[in-house]
Give the backbone structure.
Amino acid sequence: MKAGQQPMRHVYLDHNATTPVLPEVLEAMLPYYREAFGNPSSVHRHGRRARVAIDETRDSIAAMLGAPAASIVFSSGGTEANNTIIKGMAVARQARGRHLVTSQIEHPAVLDTCAVLAQQGYRVTYVPVDAQGVVTPEAVQEALSDETILVSIMYANNETGVIQPIADIASLVRARGIAMHTDAVQAFGKLPLRVDDLGVDLLSFSGHKLYAPKGIGGWYARPGMALPPLLHGGHQERGRRSGTEPVASIVALGTACLLAQRDMAQEWERQQQLQQRLEHGLHEYIPHIRIQGSTAPRLPNTTNVAFADVEGEALMMSLDMQGVAISTGSACSSGSLEPSHVLRAMGVPAAYLHGALRISLGRSTGRDDIEYVLTILPGIVQQARALS
């Protein structure tokens, strides 16, 4: 290492893509791989013990959402939950109409599902956003028709962290007798989610965004909301989702939710301070940048920053060589050379469109991690601009 050169650290700043499993969560899982391994559908003691663990987790998540336990269904994650909700509502309410409303900035799990339904003869309206990435209630109101059967708007955007006015949107949607769904995958565990306060009929969530393992998530459906199953072949989850339940992962999700509730206020404040330091430093040390959604309500762990006249992929690879893991947008779209659909919808100028990075903080992120990024990133940007 040359004199004066910063030692390379290993900094993970891609928590919106996935999070590490917390030690407490892993410990909670282990008994259900060892001695409590029974199939929860079995009636003997091994099965009953597994069933009790699932029921306790369902009760815990229901309490977190302020919902009845029977309204919570476990799935393999947010993608399956979104597919089940959107496709299920399309089938259940097609006698009323075949029109769905969503936004231009949704996760591919929603956009691609809607695209499949459009190929099957459904009409889909994609509501625009303003320059801050906010879906306004007025824009949703304008999109509704007498044939609208479902509105699906995400709670917090996975690329920008911008929080949508779901309660206001849900109020006008449900006043028309239309079902309201929110993809809450990025918000789940980061801020309070009470379904009655939000006014939603349907809500999807995932475990691996809040320090539970991948492959577990679920959805909430308001009591009385008919939702045909996506999967068939068993009677698990009261016939709403077939397949032997992954007991260890469900227990892990419940433990992660309890930890998230316990530390939510503290982590919000701590990460917000780190976010403010990061964004202030970016503006101070690097010219010609844009922070997306900077004046809108945002998650405190998410900063989407675009650099003029440089490729975000080049910055990401250079940061990775310096030990920093970040992304250029949604992990589900990694490898795509196309500009982010979210940034395009926000009207980000062409000079910045390809130069975006998403920096997402987490429980392990410290002030020294932020300072390390602020130390190495200006030079990386300067070099990339010189080369381009």
The domain at 11-20+263-387 is CATH 3.90.1150.10 (Aspartate Aminotransferase, domain 1). The chain has a mean pLDDT of 95.
